[in-house]
Automatic annotation (TrEMBL):
Function: Pyridoxal 5'-phosphate (PLP)-binding protein, which is involved in PLP homeostasis.
Classification via InterPro entries: Ala_racemase_N, PLP-binding_barrel, PyrdxlP_homeostasis
In-chain residues carrying the UniProt-annotated modification N6-(pyridoxal phosphate)lysine: 36
Keywords for this protein: Pyridoxal phosphate
Name of this protein: Pyridoxal phosphate homeostasis protein
Transmembrane region(s): none
Lineage per the UniProt record: Bacteria, Pseudomonadati, Pseudomonadota, Gammaproteobacteria, Pseudomonadales
């Protein structure tokens, strides 16, 4: 378990190197530690090594860890999994960011259920960038209307887009998928400048974070390279 701290160091160096190579500002790419299936003690080791942002996919599992780690008040919790509409209240109450919003109903409920006095909940729209039927996410054509509607909601802040491209495509195609997401964000921001800061691209994972950073990622979501391989029954994408 002590190697989690080493892994944070090496992933951080990968991010710095890719950021530099892309000619981007150091610090413009943040590391989201994807901690699904991991035990609270593993997250605690990562937090003690300086990791701040943790991403969880399953609500009940996340709530158990949030409770177990509530003494670590520097942790910033991100929800990155599929969202059922009957689960939005706890997400609105316990998380700082949601990367996986793919329909208006969910965004509306998160805004309504954000507790009074909390800062706006940061949202990314998850885009089905390779148009695979099996994956969650909205289509590119749904985005303009969604952005305008979510931009009007009072207690959420529209930060940008998230995608999980098909990992089985060639490196060149993967790069084009990331580029498409970046171009889409730019167009949406131009078309709807009032909708929110739209400063965020959540893209890139353990195996492809360098490509994602070269194409403009601002959050890379990394699980395996920090915590090791997951048990296969829970592993996703
Ligand atoms: C599991 C997961 C990741 C992390 O994937 P790794 O390949 O383990 O780095 C990133 N994003 C989402 C949405 C995930 O579900």
């Amino acid at each position: 378990m002590s190697s989690i701290a080493d892994n944070i160091g090496s992933v951080t160096r990968r991010i710095q190197k890719a950021t530099l190579k892309a000619g981007r500002d150091p610090g413009s790419v943040r590391l989201l530690a994807v901690s699904k299936t991991r035990q609270p003690d593993e997250l605690r080791v990562a937090a003690n090594a300086g990791q701040v942002a943790f991403g969880e996919n399953y609500l009940q599992e996340a709530l158990d860890k949030i409770e177990a780690l509530k003494d670590l008040d520097q942790i910033e919790w991100h929800f990155i999994g599929p969202i059922q509409s009957n689960k939005t209240r706890q997400i609105a109450e316990m998380f700082a960011w949601v990367h996986s919003v793919d329909r208006l109903k969910i965004a509306r409920r998160l805004s309504e259920q954000r507790p009074p006095g909390f800062p706006p909940l940061n949202l990314c729209l998850q885009v089905n960038i390779n148009d695979e039927d099996s994956k969650s996410g909205c289509t590119l054509s749904e985005l303009p209307e969604l952005v305008d509607e979510i931009g009007d909601l009072p207690n959420v802040k529209l930060r940008g887009l998230m995608a999980i491209p098909d990992p089985d495509q060639s490196e060149a195609d993967l790069r084009m998928s990331f580029r498409k997401l970046a171009n889409t964000l730019r167009e949406l921001k131009r078309a709807s400048p009032e909708a929110g800061p739209m400063d965020t691209l959540s893209m890139g994972m353990s195996d492809d974070l360098e490509i994602a950073i070269a194409e403009g990622a601002t959050w890379v979501r990394v699980g395996t390279a920090l915590f090791g391989a997951r048990p296969s029954k829970h592993s996703q994408s």
